[in-house]
Amino acid sequence: MIWNKGRGTQVLNLLRPKTTVSAHCDLPCGVYDPAQARIEAESVKAICEKYAANEDPVFRARAIGIKEQRSQLVKEHLWVLWTDYFKPPHFEKYPQLHELFNKATKLAGGGGGTKSSMDVKTAEDLLAAIAEIDKIFWETKQA
Amino acid sequence: MIWNKGRGTQVLNLLRPKTTVSAHCDLPCGVYDPAQARIEAESVKAICEKYAANEDPVFRARAIGIKEQRSQLVKEHLWVLWTDYFKPPHFEKYPQLHELFNKATKLAGGGGGTKSSMDVKTAEDLLAAIAEIDKIFWETKQA
Amino acid sequence: MIWNKGRGTQVLNLLRPKTTVSAHCDLPCGVYDPAQARIEAESVKAICEKYAANEDPVFRARAIGIKEQRSQLVKEHLWVLWTDYFKPPHFEKYPQLHELFNKATKLAGGGGGTKSSMDVKTAEDLLAAIAEIDKIFWETKQA
Amino acid sequence: MIWNKGRGTQVLNLLRPKTTVSAHCDLPCGVYDPAQARIEAESVKAICEKYAANEDPVFRARAIGIKEQRSQLVKEHLWVLWTDYFKPPHFEKYPQLHELFNKATKLAGGGGGTKSSMDVKTAEDLLAAIAEIDKIFWETKQA
Amino acid sequence: MIWNKGRGTQVLNLLRPKTTVSAHCDLPCGVYDPAQARIEAESVKAICEKYAANEDPVFRARAIGIKEQRSQLVKEHLWVLWTDYFKPPHFEKYPQLHELFNKATKLAGGGGGTKSSMDVKTAEDLLAAIAEIDKIFWETKQA
Amino acid sequence: MIWNKGRGTQVLNLLRPKTTVSAHCDLPCGVYDPAQARIEAESVKAICEKYAANEDPVFRARAIGIKEQRSQLVKEHLWVLWTDYFKPPHFEKYPQLHELFNKATKLAGGGGGTKSSMDVKTAEDLLAAIAEIDKIFWETKQA
Description:
With 143 residues, chain A is mostly helical. Chain A is built from 6 helices and no strands.
């Protein structure tokens, strides 16, 4: 999986469009960026790793609570992209997009997603789903 | 001003460290990224531009309210960096850092900052201050 | 469109089905109910009506701000249903469901939806979309 | 106790009164509905049941945290009814109303209410108190 | 009305009672203080004064939005005192307490209270009601 | 350390300075008061004490979660003072002020502060830092 890290690999960046990313509030201002969801998901993954390495009960209780919030933020950032950024022509061109977003937000939820799971693997699956969204997002920005 | 755009220029990226960005929740998880403040500030700037171009009173009332929230998010993301990411050795190495953060958060506030001003220039000043913070941030990540 | 007002007469209540409604928090607790989205959308509609009838500038500024929040709540309640309640078999049985939710949440948003529009008609379109979702929801509960 | 489930059968809907429910935001928009408090309280009850049936420590930690939030939402929805919907003439006609609301909100709190108790019985007492409020509410709507 | 400004001179502090103030979160931690409601209400009053003195439309739109939030905080702080601090024996001893709280929270609301009114006098009435609550609160703490 | 409890006796009130406290929202309204941070920090301290005295696992899980929120509120109230109340001339006159705020907000955080520590001593250190800020704050108000 190749990420767009707020940095990314050199190769990918050389090919990237230079246009400024845009729209995420619902004015809409036109500034959207999947990096917002990705940063929260990286936090979720880091929390799972730290949880596994630390058996202190206070630390673990805090980790569970904070991971809940960060997973929620992932869901919210993804929902905004799905509803506010993507338009009917995008869904026509990428027929898998609805399911991809539905799967990704479920992966950040309580029914087996990163809210309920302490498994680093679940967080990685979430990051992979966000990466797929990110790839499509940037393709549509180029179009 | 050269930005780290979630993309950045090619030249800068070639020189960038490959380490993954890290810590922003207060577990702490170790994932921090000034991109969070920058994205909100870009939104603030876009709102000012759209406000200037649209005299509809409902649009303008919404723009003022949303810009207030986005400016607040800028402040919160910056405060987290200042308190949670930066440590005493950083403040020693970068003696201007306290003032820089104080100025940047004031630039997102109500006393002449982007909360009270509709001026695109104020949003650009805020973006420039965040860019300075961003530069120092990535230097400390390399160290 | 006949709404399910959350209220019947005593007589009607005696005839009511006893099945418990189910899951909306992300434990998940299993209590979901489209009434949550509908109540907020009714509030949005009432705000549009009151706005049209009152030219006081303070009242109007407040109405615009409050309608923004209530529209946001509609979006959040709908997103929770889409991601957390509905499962792959539902989407198979109701292939229009993704688009219906995407359209409904856009109708509560800023790009022509109830956040940006003061038009009672827009709020009615939103209520109609929620009613469609409500119908499918209760069909799946009975299944 | 007969609840008003926010859902009847098609047949029942045909017989439903057409009066619009009314006011819950503080414009005020005039849309209030005790169903909002009830749905959250049903979630609280379901969480207590699931907690009793599942000894996994991560699940239990999450349940405690989420029940705290849902109980808080019950309190907020009830406070809004007490302050914003009910007027002096209502308090005259129903002299028990102040105590009823005070008791109901305490039942959703931390001093023996559903925030601190994992007991299903406490959640049921809360639901019963909300049902009493609901009954009075709809009487005042008919008047 | 003499307020309890949260501030005395050094000399006065030496004479201050040492009793610890007490409970406001819903653990409950036992720290309550009507100063929280009062500070927000003072902010509301100051906003009304500044609004009257400044006709800039952006300033006025911001003032209306911020006053809405501060009034909401007043309501929340008062509701917490009413539900969480005050117990049945207090309500017996101060039979006016329910009405006093109901009136005070209405004074911070949208139906003629400080949310809808830009009138400094309304904010002063709110402050007077909080002062009455404050007086009773401290009597009960001494008992 | 003598605290400024937000409460004196009637006699003391007669002697109280009449100056109005000032600005904490970002209009700015001009009402600031370090009492807001102090009250939350006192809550944090009380939670640590109650935690130590109660081994019930549900109580302890709730205490950890609530202390997290109250510590966050301390940070937010302090950040507002640092960014919005204090101006360049204050930082010139009190050159230790930046570090004092940075230390105080770290003391309410997750890296050894009151978010991560259950130790009453940490909460006392936080209260002492707020007391230092409070002292400087009131000196600047008198100037």
